[in-house]
Each structure stands twice: as C-alpha cells, then as structure tokens.
Amino acid sequence: MEFRDVVRRRRMVRRYAERPVDPAVVDRMLDHATRAPSAGFSQGWGFLVLDTPEDVRRYWEVTAGPEAVAEPDSWLAGMMTAPVLVVPCSNKAAYLGRYAEPDKGWTDADEQERESRWPMPYWHMDTAMASLLILQTAVDEGLGACFFGVPPHAYPAVKEAFGIPPEYDPVGAITVGHRLDDTGPKGSPSRRPRKPVEDVVHRGRW
User: Which CATH topology does 3-180 take?
Assistant: First the structure.
C-alpha cells in the first residue's frame, strides 16, 4: 500500500471481525514501533501485548469492571471484539538517566530540574509516536486499530494485574483486529468535520 493511502485510510476502528490476527503481523507492528524517534535515542518505551482471550478479557475487567464486561454498552461491546491489545508504556527514568550521561552535558538526573530541562514530557511524546507507527502498520497490513486512554482510576490496577514495572506508565491502549468498516459505534470524525489544512498551517507567522 502506498504511504499516502496508509495515512488517509487510518481511522479508529471500534468493532472487529471474529478472526485471529497473525502473530507475525503483531511482531511487525512492534518492530516498527521501535523505529520511532526518541530524544537522545533513550528508547524509554515498553509494550505490553495481550493476545489471548483470557488476557484481553482481564484487561477489560480491570479497566471497566466485571459488571460492565458482563453487560457492556455499545462502545465496550465493540472494543471487546478485538483479539489483540497493546499497551504502550513510557519510562521517564530512562530519559532522566540518558541525559545525565556525559555526551548530553547534564551531570545528574535530578527531576527538580524538569521544568528547565524538560518543558515537554518527551517520554510520553516518543511513546505516542511509537503508537502511531503501530496504528499505521495495522492499516498497511489490512487491519484496524484504535488508540484510546486508560481510565485514570484504573492505572494502578492495570500495572498490578499485568506486572508492569513501577518506572513504566501506560500512555494508552491499542486494540487491533480485522476491521469491520460499517458497523460499530462511530467516533467523533463522523460528527465533526476535519479542519482544512489552511486553517491549521501558518507560514512564516501565525
């Protein structure tokens, strides 16, 4: 598929066919994710892959609750049909440590200096770029995917349930599966127009 077609076809898919995803395809998604840029080549990311029915259901039970899983609303009912879940996680400590190395000029990993050294949380940003590569690879492989947030109250439970180390934080989750184009709940793009390029691009001066 041409790259321009991958970009234009990418959308958030919220309901999937009852077909398994080839593990080799999942491996390619993750390999592509590791090709994302990262500040200082810190590569402070990790990817939790849930690809068994038991693990996928456990994720939904941890984040939505057993009652909701037993009687899901339309959004959850659609998302639960995905056979694969990937939880991208960022590692702030990897960045603080990397930039305390001699070639970066800082002599410590003092987080108190975060505001002057880290005006943006690049550990999250880089992991988000890696997540986009997963979404784009899904399209290129003829699959669907959806990036969505982990409910704030569920962060500790997700980390505990799946043994995510303390230094890693989920930035979201990605469902992956064979797409069903015309079924399932519709997202915001079905209700809101895409902004024209000329409304968001400013050349030379805002």
Answer: NADH Oxidase (3.40.109)
Rounded Cα distance, 51 and 86, in Å: 8
Would you say how long the chain is, in residues? 206
C-alpha separations of 33 from 2, 60, 122, 146 in Å: 19, 24, 16, 15
Kindly indicate the confidence band of residue 118, based on its pLDDT and cuts at 50, 70 and 90. Answer: confident
pLDDT in tens, 146-163: 999 999 999 999 999 999
Q: What pLDDT does 107 receive?
A: 63
Tokens 């598929």 found at: 1
Query: What is the mean pLDDT of the segment spanning 43-53?
Result: 97
**Measured on CA atoms in the order 40, 31, 7, 76, is the torsion positive or negative?**
negative
Sheet strands (E) in the chain: 45-50, 84-91, 144-148, 168-170, 173-177
Closest CA to 154 of 166, 172, 168, 167: 172
Range scoring the smallest mean pLDDT among 20-24, 103-107, 196-200: 103-107
Domains of the chain, residue spans: 3-180
Closest CA to 44 of 140, 130, 162: 130
Running DSSP on this structure, what letter comes out for residue 66? H
